[in-house]
Design a protein that fits this description.
With about 60 residues, this protein is α+β, with helices and mostly antiparallel strands. The protein contains two helices and three strands.
């Protein structure tokens, strides 16, 4: 989370429908999780769209875009 706060642009942009998003991948007990977020430059903050297992994280984020 510290990297997200200090260097949000260091995480690659997604493509296609989620092109405004970026994601952080991590593993918990061998399962791939994602924290999907977007940078709101006008307000100088990041908006966390979802934190979930890999596929569900992206599906959930898509519903919030």
């Amino acid at each position: 989370m510290q990297d997200l706060a200090e260097k949000p642009y260091s995480f690659g942009k997604k493509k296609g429908k989620r092109k405004s998003c970026r994601a952080i991948g991590f593993k918990v007990k061998g399962n791939a999780w994602r924290l999907v977020f977007r940078i709101i430059e006008a307000e100088n903050h990041v908006e966390i769209l979802s934190i979930a297992l890999h596929d569900e994280a992206y599906n959930s984020a898509q519903r919030r875009i």
